[in-house]
Amino acid sequence: MNLTNAVILCAGLSFTLAGQAAQTITIATVNNGDMIRMQRLASLFEQQHPDIKLDWVVLEENVLRQRLTTDIATQGGQFDVLTIGTYETPLWGAKHWLEPMTDLPPAYDEDDIFPSVRQGLSVNGTLYALPFYGESTVTYYRKDLFEAAGLAMPEKPTWTQLGAFAAKLNDPSRGQYGMCLRGKAGWGENMALLSTLANAFGARWFDEKWHPELDSAQWKAAATFYVNTLKNYGPPGVSSNGFNETLALFNSGKCAIWVDASVAGSFTTDPAQSQVADSVGFAAAPTQVTDKGSSWLYAWSLAIPATSRHKEAAKAFITWATSKQYIQLVSDKDGITHVPPGTRISTYSDAYVKAAPFAEVTLQMMKHADPSQPSAKPVPYVGIQYVVIPEFQSIGTSVGKLFSAALTGQMSVDQALASAQATTEREMKRAGYPKP
Questions:
Q1: For residue 275, is it within any domain?
Q2: pLDDT digits (tens, 9 = 90+) for 329-341
Protein backbone atom coordinates (compact mmCIF):
# COMPACT_ATOMS: atom_id res chain seq x y z
CA MET A 1 0.00 0.00 0.00
CA ASN A 2 1.45 3.39 -0.93
CA LEU A 3 1.59 6.29 1.51
CA THR A 4 -1.27 8.18 -0.08
CA ASN A 5 -3.61 5.19 0.23
CA ALA A 6 -2.44 4.64 3.79
CA VAL A 7 -3.20 8.22 4.78
CA ILE A 8 -6.79 8.00 3.63
CA LEU A 9 -7.48 4.42 4.62
CA CYS A 10 -6.05 4.90 8.11
CA ALA A 11 -8.29 7.92 8.54
CA GLY A 12 -11.18 5.52 7.97
CA LEU A 13 -12.84 7.75 5.43
CA SER A 14 -11.97 6.43 1.99
CA PHE A 15 -15.33 4.99 1.11
CA THR A 16 -17.78 7.15 3.07
CA LEU A 17 -18.70 9.27 0.09
CA ALA A 18 -18.75 6.60 -2.58
CA GLY A 19 -21.61 6.86 -4.99
CA GLN A 20 -22.43 10.45 -4.16
CA ALA A 21 -22.41 13.24 -6.73
CA ALA A 22 -19.28 15.35 -6.95
CA GLN A 23 -19.30 18.20 -4.47
CA THR A 24 -17.07 21.18 -3.78
CA ILE A 25 -16.13 22.20 -0.26
CA THR A 26 -14.87 25.73 0.33
CA ILE A 27 -12.01 26.00 2.81
CA ALA A 28 -11.15 29.32 4.45
CA THR A 29 -7.64 29.43 5.85
CA VAL A 30 -4.81 31.74 6.85
CA ASN A 31 -1.75 32.45 4.71
CA ASN A 32 0.72 30.89 7.15
CA GLY A 33 3.36 28.49 5.84
CA ASP A 34 1.87 25.31 7.29
CA MET A 35 -1.50 26.04 5.70
CA ILE A 36 0.13 26.75 2.33
CA ARG A 37 1.75 23.31 2.63
CA MET A 38 -1.61 21.76 3.50
CA GLN A 39 -3.11 23.28 0.36
CA ARG A 40 -0.29 21.81 -1.74
CA LEU A 41 -0.51 18.33 -0.24
CA ALA A 42 -4.30 18.29 -0.41
CA SER A 43 -4.07 17.28 -4.06
CA LEU A 44 -3.42 13.79 -2.67
CA PHE A 45 -6.69 13.96 -0.76
CA GLU A 46 -8.53 14.89 -3.95
CA GLN A 47 -6.94 11.99 -5.81
CA GLN A 48 -8.28 9.59 -3.19
CA HIS A 49 -11.68 11.35 -3.09
CA PRO A 50 -12.63 12.05 -6.71
CA ASP A 51 -16.12 13.02 -5.53
CA ILE A 52 -14.72 15.90 -3.45
CA LYS A 53 -13.22 19.06 -4.91
CA LEU A 54 -11.47 21.61 -2.72
CA ASP A 55 -11.93 25.34 -3.20
CA TRP A 56 -9.43 27.42 -1.22
CA VAL A 57 -9.86 30.93 0.18
CA VAL A 58 -6.49 31.92 1.66
CA LEU A 59 -6.44 35.21 3.58
CA GLU A 60 -4.21 37.35 5.79
CA GLU A 61 -4.86 36.71 9.48
CA ASN A 62 -6.85 39.83 10.38
CA VAL A 63 -8.92 39.60 7.19
CA LEU A 64 -9.63 35.90 7.73
CA ARG A 65 -10.90 36.49 11.25
CA GLN A 66 -13.14 39.34 10.16
CA ARG A 67 -14.60 37.37 7.22
CA LEU A 68 -15.26 34.25 9.27
CA THR A 69 -16.77 36.14 12.21
CA THR A 70 -19.14 38.00 9.91
CA ASP A 71 -20.11 34.86 8.00
CA ILE A 72 -20.71 32.70 11.09
CA ALA A 73 -22.65 35.38 12.96
CA THR A 74 -24.93 36.11 10.00
CA GLN A 75 -25.22 32.42 9.06
CA GLY A 76 -23.93 33.36 5.63
CA GLY A 77 -22.86 29.84 4.70
CA GLN A 78 -19.96 30.84 2.44
CA PHE A 79 -17.59 28.18 3.80
CA ASP A 80 -17.57 24.48 4.61
CA VAL A 81 -14.28 24.43 6.54
CA LEU A 82 -13.14 27.24 8.83
CA THR A 83 -9.62 27.81 10.11
CA ILE A 84 -10.20 29.12 13.63
CA GLY A 85 -8.52 28.82 17.00
CA THR A 86 -8.93 28.27 20.69
CA TYR A 87 -10.62 31.66 21.08
CA GLU A 88 -13.49 31.24 18.62
CA THR A 89 -14.12 27.51 18.97
CA PRO A 90 -15.58 27.38 22.50
CA LEU A 91 -17.62 30.54 21.94
CA TRP A 92 -19.05 29.45 18.60
CA GLY A 93 -19.48 25.85 19.69
CA ALA A 94 -21.54 26.95 22.68
CA LYS A 95 -23.83 28.89 20.31
CA HIS A 96 -24.23 25.77 18.12
CA TRP A 97 -22.67 27.63 15.19
CA LEU A 98 -20.24 24.72 14.67
CA GLU A 99 -20.76 21.04 14.05
CA PRO A 100 -19.55 18.83 16.92
CA MET A 101 -16.57 16.71 15.87
CA THR A 102 -17.88 13.39 17.19
CA ASP A 103 -17.72 9.79 15.99
CA LEU A 104 -14.11 10.09 14.86
CA PRO A 105 -12.63 6.85 13.48
CA PRO A 106 -10.52 4.85 15.98
CA ALA A 107 -7.40 5.34 13.81
CA TYR A 108 -7.70 9.10 14.37
CA ASP A 109 -6.62 8.52 18.00
CA GLU A 110 -8.26 11.49 19.68
CA ASP A 111 -6.43 10.69 22.93
CA ASP A 112 -3.13 11.45 21.18
CA ILE A 113 -4.04 15.15 21.06
CA PHE A 114 -2.51 17.17 23.90
CA PRO A 115 -5.12 17.46 26.69
CA SER A 116 -4.72 21.26 26.94
CA VAL A 117 -5.41 21.58 23.19
CA ARG A 118 -8.44 19.27 23.37
CA GLN A 119 -9.80 21.27 26.27
CA GLY A 120 -9.34 24.56 24.42
CA LEU A 121 -11.37 23.26 21.47
CA SER A 122 -14.18 21.69 23.48
CA VAL A 123 -17.48 22.68 25.06
CA ASN A 124 -18.66 20.43 27.89
CA GLY A 125 -16.23 17.74 26.79
CA THR A 126 -17.25 17.75 23.11
CA LEU A 127 -14.74 18.80 20.43
CA TYR A 128 -15.97 21.45 18.00
CA ALA A 129 -12.76 21.71 15.97
CA LEU A 130 -9.74 19.52 15.29
CA PRO A 131 -6.27 21.03 15.78
CA PHE A 132 -4.06 21.50 12.72
CA TYR A 133 -1.08 22.86 14.66
CA GLY A 134 -0.52 24.11 18.17
CA GLU A 135 1.86 26.72 19.46
CA SER A 136 3.15 28.61 22.44
CA THR A 137 5.67 31.46 22.63
CA VAL A 138 9.45 31.17 22.40
CA THR A 139 12.45 33.48 22.15
CA TYR A 140 14.40 33.27 18.89
CA TYR A 141 17.87 34.77 18.77
CA ARG A 142 20.99 34.90 16.65
CA LYS A 143 23.66 32.77 18.28
CA ASP A 144 26.37 34.20 16.02
CA LEU A 145 25.59 37.79 17.00
CA PHE A 146 25.44 36.92 20.69
CA GLU A 147 28.77 35.13 20.51
CA ALA A 148 30.45 37.98 18.62
CA ALA A 149 29.23 40.45 21.27
CA GLY A 150 30.27 38.22 24.17
CA LEU A 151 26.66 37.76 25.30
CA ALA A 152 24.93 34.65 26.61
CA MET A 153 21.19 34.10 26.35
CA PRO A 154 19.74 32.69 29.59
CA GLU A 155 17.64 29.57 29.29
CA LYS A 156 14.77 31.54 30.83
CA PRO A 157 15.29 35.24 30.03
CA THR A 158 13.35 38.23 31.33
CA TRP A 159 12.03 41.02 29.13
CA THR A 160 14.45 43.42 30.83
CA GLN A 161 17.37 41.19 29.89
CA LEU A 162 16.18 40.99 26.30
CA GLY A 163 15.92 44.77 26.18
CA ALA A 164 19.51 45.11 27.36
CA PHE A 165 20.67 42.61 24.73
CA ALA A 166 18.72 44.47 22.06
CA ALA A 167 20.47 47.70 22.94
CA LYS A 168 23.90 46.10 22.52
CA LEU A 169 23.05 44.28 19.29
CA ASN A 170 21.20 47.08 17.51
CA ASP A 171 23.14 48.26 14.44
CA PRO A 172 20.84 49.97 11.91
CA SER A 173 23.82 50.91 9.72
CA ARG A 174 24.13 47.20 8.91
CA GLY A 175 20.39 46.61 8.67
CA GLN A 176 20.53 44.78 12.00
CA TYR A 177 17.92 45.53 14.65
CA GLY A 178 18.08 44.56 18.30
CA MET A 179 14.54 43.26 18.68
CA CYS A 180 11.68 42.51 16.32
CA LEU A 181 8.15 42.12 17.67
CA ARG A 182 4.66 42.29 16.22
CA GLY A 183 3.33 45.82 15.79
CA LYS A 184 0.43 45.32 13.39
CA ALA A 185 -2.89 46.14 15.04
CA GLY A 186 -5.20 43.22 15.75
CA TRP A 187 -6.48 41.21 18.68
CA GLY A 188 -4.58 38.20 17.33
CA GLU A 189 -1.59 40.20 16.07
CA ASN A 190 0.06 42.84 18.27
CA MET A 191 -2.29 42.20 21.19
CA ALA A 192 -1.39 38.50 21.34
CA LEU A 193 2.23 39.44 21.97
CA LEU A 194 1.49 42.47 24.12
CA SER A 195 -0.97 40.59 26.34
CA THR A 196 1.66 37.98 27.23
CA LEU A 197 4.18 40.76 27.83
CA ALA A 198 1.70 42.51 30.11
CA ASN A 199 0.96 39.27 31.96
CA ALA A 200 4.69 38.84 32.59
CA PHE A 201 4.79 42.33 34.10
CA GLY A 202 1.98 41.30 36.49
CA ALA A 203 -0.90 42.95 34.59
CA ARG A 204 -4.34 41.58 33.81
CA TRP A 205 -7.13 42.63 31.46
CA PHE A 206 -9.86 42.64 34.13
CA ASP A 207 -10.11 42.39 37.89
CA GLU A 208 -12.33 39.82 39.60
CA LYS A 209 -15.41 41.99 38.99
CA TRP A 210 -14.70 42.46 35.26
CA HIS A 211 -13.46 46.01 35.66
CA PRO A 212 -10.79 46.80 33.04
CA GLU A 213 -7.29 47.41 34.39
CA LEU A 214 -5.51 48.89 31.37
CA ASP A 215 -4.71 52.00 33.41
CA SER A 216 -2.76 49.99 35.97
CA ALA A 217 0.91 50.50 36.80
CA GLN A 218 1.67 47.02 35.46
CA TRP A 219 0.14 47.74 32.06
CA LYS A 220 2.01 51.04 31.93
CA ALA A 221 5.34 49.32 32.69
CA ALA A 222 4.71 46.68 30.03
CA ALA A 223 3.49 49.09 27.34
CA THR A 224 6.34 51.51 28.02
CA PHE A 225 8.89 48.74 27.64
CA TYR A 226 7.24 47.54 24.43
CA VAL A 227 7.01 50.96 22.77
CA ASN A 228 10.44 52.22 23.86
CA THR A 229 12.22 49.00 22.89
CA LEU A 230 10.72 48.92 19.43
CA LYS A 231 11.22 52.65 18.86
CA ASN A 232 14.87 52.46 19.90
CA TYR A 233 15.94 49.02 18.74
CA GLY A 234 13.23 47.78 16.37
CA PRO A 235 13.03 47.83 12.58
CA PRO A 236 11.42 50.72 10.70
CA GLY A 237 7.72 50.41 9.92
CA VAL A 238 7.13 48.05 12.83
CA SER A 239 3.47 49.03 13.10
CA SER A 240 2.89 47.19 9.81
CA ASN A 241 4.52 43.96 10.95
CA GLY A 242 2.50 40.94 12.04
CA PHE A 243 3.67 37.35 12.36
CA ASN A 244 4.50 36.76 8.70
CA GLU A 245 6.25 40.10 8.19
CA THR A 246 8.38 39.68 11.31
CA LEU A 247 9.26 36.11 10.35
CA ALA A 248 10.49 37.41 7.00
CA LEU A 249 12.62 40.04 8.75
CA PHE A 250 14.17 37.45 11.06
CA ASN A 251 14.85 35.01 8.23
CA SER A 252 16.54 37.74 6.20
CA GLY A 253 19.00 38.38 9.04
CA LYS A 254 17.63 41.71 10.23
CA CYS A 255 16.67 40.73 13.80
CA ALA A 256 18.97 39.81 16.68
CA ILE A 257 16.02 38.79 18.91
CA TRP A 258 12.44 37.86 18.12
CA VAL A 259 9.72 36.69 20.53
CA ASP A 260 6.79 35.00 18.83
CA ALA A 261 4.94 31.79 18.06
CA SER A 262 6.82 28.52 18.45
CA VAL A 263 5.50 27.34 15.08
CA ALA A 264 8.11 29.55 13.38
CA GLY A 265 10.87 27.17 14.48
CA SER A 266 10.71 25.06 11.33
CA PHE A 267 10.81 28.14 9.08
CA THR A 268 13.72 29.86 10.84
CA THR A 269 15.85 26.70 10.58
CA ASP A 270 15.01 25.87 6.96
CA PRO A 271 17.93 26.89 4.68
CA ALA A 272 15.50 27.22 1.80
CA GLN A 273 13.62 29.97 3.67
CA SER A 274 16.08 31.39 6.19
CA GLN A 275 19.41 33.09 5.56
CA VAL A 276 20.32 32.50 9.21
CA ALA A 277 19.17 28.88 9.50
CA ASP A 278 22.45 27.69 11.02
CA SER A 279 22.62 30.49 13.59
CA VAL A 280 19.22 30.38 15.31
CA GLY A 281 19.01 29.80 19.05
CA PHE A 282 15.90 29.07 21.09
CA ALA A 283 15.02 30.02 24.66
CA ALA A 284 11.91 30.10 26.81
CA ALA A 285 9.39 32.91 26.42
CA PRO A 286 10.54 35.89 28.52
CA THR A 287 9.14 36.45 31.98
CA GLN A 288 9.42 39.51 34.23
CA VAL A 289 7.84 39.70 37.68
CA THR A 290 5.99 36.43 37.04
CA ASP A 291 5.96 33.55 34.59
CA LYS A 292 2.16 33.22 34.69
CA GLY A 293 0.69 34.06 31.30
CA SER A 294 4.12 34.82 29.86
CA SER A 295 3.67 32.32 27.01
CA TRP A 296 0.48 31.76 25.10
CA LEU A 297 -1.34 28.59 24.11
CA TYR A 298 -3.06 28.50 20.75
CA ALA A 299 -4.11 25.96 18.17
CA TRP A 300 -5.01 26.84 14.61
CA SER A 301 -7.79 24.36 13.98
CA LEU A 302 -10.32 23.25 11.38
CA ALA A 303 -14.06 23.35 12.04
CA ILE A 304 -17.32 22.88 10.16
CA PRO A 305 -19.94 25.64 10.35
CA ALA A 306 -23.49 24.46 11.01
CA THR A 307 -24.50 26.17 7.76
CA SER A 308 -22.31 23.88 5.59
CA ARG A 309 -24.23 21.87 3.02
CA HIS A 310 -21.36 19.39 2.68
CA LYS A 311 -20.70 18.37 6.27
CA GLU A 312 -19.68 14.79 5.53
CA ALA A 313 -17.16 15.82 2.89
CA ALA A 314 -15.85 18.60 5.13
CA LYS A 315 -15.38 16.15 7.99
CA ALA A 316 -13.54 13.77 5.68
CA PHE A 317 -11.07 16.53 4.77
CA ILE A 318 -10.62 17.84 8.32
CA THR A 319 -9.99 14.38 9.71
CA TRP A 320 -7.40 13.76 6.99
CA ALA A 321 -5.60 17.09 7.47
CA THR A 322 -5.30 16.72 11.25
CA SER A 323 -4.47 13.00 11.39
CA LYS A 324 -1.27 11.26 12.46
CA GLN A 325 -1.06 10.00 8.92
CA TYR A 326 -1.01 13.56 7.54
CA ILE A 327 1.86 14.37 9.90
CA GLN A 328 3.71 11.35 8.51
CA LEU A 329 2.94 12.52 4.99
CA VAL A 330 4.55 15.91 5.67
CA SER A 331 7.56 14.20 7.20
CA ASP A 332 7.99 11.97 4.14
CA LYS A 333 7.43 14.76 1.61
CA ASP A 334 9.10 17.78 3.21
CA GLY A 335 11.15 16.47 6.14
CA ILE A 336 10.42 15.69 9.77
CA THR A 337 11.17 19.22 11.03
CA HIS A 338 8.28 20.58 8.94
CA VAL A 339 5.48 18.51 10.46
CA PRO A 340 2.63 20.48 12.06
CA PRO A 341 3.77 20.92 15.68
CA GLY A 342 2.08 21.15 19.02
CA THR A 343 -1.03 19.03 18.59
CA ARG A 344 -0.11 15.36 19.08
CA ILE A 345 1.88 13.60 21.77
CA SER A 346 3.16 11.11 19.22
CA THR A 347 4.80 13.89 17.17
CA TYR A 348 7.36 14.45 19.92
CA SER A 349 9.22 11.21 19.30
CA ASP A 350 12.94 10.91 19.89
CA ALA A 351 13.51 11.27 16.14
CA TYR A 352 11.57 14.55 15.96
CA VAL A 353 13.14 16.06 19.07
CA LYS A 354 16.58 15.12 17.80
CA ALA A 355 15.96 16.56 14.34
CA ALA A 356 14.16 19.75 15.40
CA PRO A 357 16.26 22.04 17.64
CA PHE A 358 13.12 23.97 18.63
CA ALA A 359 11.07 20.91 19.66
CA GLU A 360 12.06 20.74 23.33
CA VAL A 361 11.47 24.40 24.12
CA THR A 362 8.15 24.30 22.23
CA LEU A 363 7.00 21.33 24.28
CA GLN A 364 8.22 22.97 27.48
CA MET A 365 6.31 26.19 26.75
CA MET A 366 3.11 24.41 25.72
CA LYS A 367 3.10 22.40 28.94
CA HIS A 368 3.78 25.57 30.95
CA ALA A 369 0.98 27.67 29.45
CA ASP A 370 -2.18 27.58 31.57
CA PRO A 371 -5.13 29.58 30.16
CA SER A 372 -7.01 29.14 33.44
CA GLN A 373 -4.31 31.05 35.37
CA PRO A 374 -3.04 33.74 32.98
CA SER A 375 -2.08 36.34 35.57
CA ALA A 376 -0.25 36.68 38.86
CA LYS A 377 -3.51 38.12 40.21
CA PRO A 378 -6.88 36.32 40.24
CA VAL A 379 -9.01 36.83 37.13
CA PRO A 380 -12.60 35.92 36.20
CA TYR A 381 -11.67 34.84 32.67
CA VAL A 382 -9.92 32.08 30.74
CA GLY A 383 -7.27 32.91 28.16
CA ILE A 384 -3.67 34.08 28.07
CA GLN A 385 -3.23 36.28 24.99
CA TYR A 386 -6.96 36.90 24.77
CA VAL A 387 -10.04 36.75 27.00
CA VAL A 388 -12.63 34.12 26.09
CA ILE A 389 -15.66 36.39 25.93
CA PRO A 390 -17.44 37.44 22.71
CA GLU A 391 -16.64 41.09 23.32
CA PHE A 392 -12.88 40.60 23.30
CA GLN A 393 -12.50 40.47 19.53
CA SER A 394 -13.78 44.05 19.24
CA ILE A 395 -11.98 45.22 22.39
CA GLY A 396 -8.66 43.66 21.43
CA THR A 397 -8.79 45.12 17.94
CA SER A 398 -9.59 48.62 19.23
CA VAL A 399 -6.84 48.49 21.86
CA GLY A 400 -4.41 47.07 19.30
CA LYS A 401 -4.93 50.12 17.09
CA LEU A 402 -4.10 52.40 20.02
CA PHE A 403 -0.82 50.64 20.76
CA SER A 404 0.05 50.67 17.07
CA ALA A 405 -0.52 54.43 17.12
CA ALA A 406 1.80 54.72 20.14
CA LEU A 407 4.51 52.94 18.15
CA THR A 408 4.25 55.47 15.32
CA GLY A 409 4.29 58.43 17.73
CA GLN A 410 0.71 59.48 17.05
CA MET A 411 0.06 59.32 20.79
CA SER A 412 2.00 58.70 23.98
CA VAL A 413 1.88 55.48 25.97
CA ASP A 414 -0.16 57.24 28.66
CA GLN A 415 -2.65 58.48 26.06
CA ALA A 416 -2.92 55.01 24.51
CA LEU A 417 -3.55 53.40 27.89
CA ALA A 418 -6.12 56.01 28.91
CA SER A 419 -7.97 55.57 25.63
CA ALA A 420 -7.73 51.78 25.90
CA GLN A 421 -9.21 51.90 29.40
CA ALA A 422 -12.07 54.14 28.31
CA THR A 423 -12.82 52.07 25.21
CA THR A 424 -12.81 48.81 27.13
CA GLU A 425 -14.98 50.20 29.94
CA ARG A 426 -17.50 51.42 27.38
CA GLU A 427 -17.62 48.08 25.53
CA MET A 428 -17.98 46.07 28.74
CA LYS A 429 -20.73 48.33 30.06
CA ARG A 430 -22.58 48.04 26.76
CA ALA A 431 -22.30 44.24 26.99
CA GLY A 432 -23.84 44.23 30.45
CA TYR A 433 -20.80 43.56 32.62
CA PRO A 434 -20.42 42.82 35.41
CA LYS A 435 -22.70 39.84 34.80
CA PRO A 436 -25.11 39.04 37.67
A1: yes
A2: 999 999 999 999 9
